[in-house]
């Protein structure tokens, strides 16, 4: 077993890590960190638990420590669910101390020597680890996963990008409240309402998508060359982001071929049969009223993206549109980091 730690273990994403790692065949949770408000307390006393399953017995009595590598002993991998500003300060310290950091936070995502990876989409970007370790003189390293709405989008764009010439993408999101953390959106702001702004989310979707689909030339990642424009909105859904996607291609296309490329999409995690990999990364729904967050967010144990309403755009030529749903704290956060770590554990 590989000993792993969770940084920010008491938050929304930290709790998902605890839940998803409870019965993991290769990773054993041996360290939990949070802020100084929680340090020194038993996990069950420090956390306000929000998930439907119970706090696993194995971590209930674990004493939470400060998010400081000197307080995290005998751990090979740390999963980071820290707020970005804290992540920027402490994740490099964990890597410097020799640990492998699999991070959800946005702080290091766009650093040129830090891989930003979705294992089904761009596993080859992990080769940047060697550059990172040489350049920074670290024994450990940092690998990041993209933001929750980007992950779901890029998992559907990857098979299309490989087969067709994408000219531009518009995406309009309807994002769950859990995406902002427990204290993120007050109930008075979101019940009976929709908030048409999520700070920095549109910029992240637009830049991270092109980076993930970019070519790695052995030294740097050269972004994919098409346009992505996003509009992001918070809706009164607990878990599961919905996205309306509009794609214009350079040339005409066959809708059945589009459907086939999404349905048959498999990546390295499926080939390697990694523990958290969904059998089908993209699940096509044929019903007119699917996908819906409540019904489809748990597809593939929360690790698959559901796509429905796939249709040709009758107004603009060479264009198609669809709706997707992905689980924001599983595939979009904790599950994404765990899959990155499983891949690293298998191939490095
Ligand atoms: N929620 C999502 O769907 C989602 C998706 C993708 C990425 N992310 C990213 O994942 C990260 C965590 O998000 P979240 O929604 O889980 O946030 P959250 O619920 O607010 O949890 C934050 C965690 O960080 C700890 N923390 C806060 N300030 C700290 C400090 N100064 N030093 C050390 N630890 C500190 C908190 O500990 P205390 O309990 O002690 O305060 C808590 O464990 C963020 O970077 C977010 O952008 C979230």
Automatic annotation (TrEMBL):
The catalytic site is made up of: 148, 241
> Annotated pathway, please?
Amino-acid biosynthesis; L-methionine biosynthesis via de novo pathway; L-homoserine from L-aspartate: step 2/3; Amino-acid biosynthesis; L-threonine biosynthesis; L-threonine from L-aspartate: step 2/5; Amino-acid biosynthesis; L-lysine biosynthesis via DAP pathway; (S)-tetrahydrodipicolinate from L-aspartate: step 2/4
GO BP terms, alphabetized: 'de novo' L-methionine biosynthetic process; diaminopimelate biosynthetic process; lysine biosynthetic process via diaminopimelate; threonine biosynthetic process
What is this enzyme's catalytic activity, as reactions? L-aspartate 4-semialdehyde + phosphate + NADP(+) = 4-phospho-L-aspartate + NADPH + H(+)
What the entry lists under SUPFAM superfamilies is as follows: Glyceraldehyde-3-phosphate dehydrogenase-like, C-terminal domain (SSF55347), NAD(P)-binding Rossmann-fold domains (SSF51735)
Q: What is its EC number?
A: 1.2.1.11
Sequence positions that bind phosphate: 109, 204
GO MF terms listed in the record are: aspartate-semialdehyde dehydrogenase activity; NAD binding; NADP binding; protein dimerization activity
Q: Quaternary structure per UniProt?
A: Homodimer.
**Sorted alphabetically, which HAMAP family does this protein's record hold?**
ASADH
Q: What is this protein called?
A: Aspartate-semialdehyde dehydrogenase
Species per Swiss-Prot/TrEMBL record: Methanobacterium lacus (strain AL-21)
Q: Recall the taxonomic lineage recorded for the source organism.
A: Archaea, Methanobacteriati, Methanobacteriota, Methanomada group, Methanobacteria
């Amino acid at each position: 077993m590989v000993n792993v730690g969770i940084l920010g273990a008491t938050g929304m994403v930290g709790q998902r890590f605890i839940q998803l790692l409870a019965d993991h065949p290769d990773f054993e949770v041996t360290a939990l960190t949070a802020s100084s408000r929680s340090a020194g307390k038993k996990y069950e006393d420090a956390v306000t638990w929000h998930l439907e399953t119970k706090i696993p017995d194995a971590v209930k009595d674990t004493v939470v420590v400060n998010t400081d590598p000197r307080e995290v002993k005998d751990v090979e991998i740390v999963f980071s669910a820290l707020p970005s500003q804290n992540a920027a300060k402490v994740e490099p310290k964990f890597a410097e101390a020799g640990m492998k950091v699999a991070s959800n936070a946005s702080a290091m995502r766009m650093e040129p020597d830090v891989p930003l990876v979705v294992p089904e989409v761009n596993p080859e970007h992990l080769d940047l680890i060697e550059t990172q370790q040489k350049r920074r003189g670290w024994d450990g390293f940092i690998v990041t996963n993209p933001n929750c709405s980007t992950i779901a989008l890029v998992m559907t764009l990857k098979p299309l990008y490989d087969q067709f010439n994408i000219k531009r993408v518009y995406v309009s999101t309807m994002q769950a409240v859990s995406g902002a953390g427990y204290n993120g959106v007050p109930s008075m702001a979101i019940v009976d309402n929709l908030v048409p702004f999520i700070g920095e989310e549109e910029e992240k979707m637009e830049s991270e998508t092109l980076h993930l689909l970019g070519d790695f030339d052995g030294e740097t990642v050269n972004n994919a060359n098409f346009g992505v424009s996003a509009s992001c909105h918070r809706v009164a859904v607990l878990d599961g982001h919905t996205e309306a996607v509009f794609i214009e291609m350079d040339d005409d296309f066959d809708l059945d071929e589009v459907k086939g490329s999404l349905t048959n999409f498999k990546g390295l995690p499926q080939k390697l049969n990694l523990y958290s990999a969904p059998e089908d990364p993209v699940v096509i729904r044929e019903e007119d009223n699917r996908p819906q967050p409540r019904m489809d967010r748990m597809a593939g144990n929360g690790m698959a993206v559901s796509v429905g309403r796939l249709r040709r755009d009758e107004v603009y030529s060479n264009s198609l549109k669809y709706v997707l749903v992905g689980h924001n704290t599983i595939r979009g956060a904790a599950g994404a980091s765990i899959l990155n770590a499983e891949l690293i554990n298998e191939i490095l």
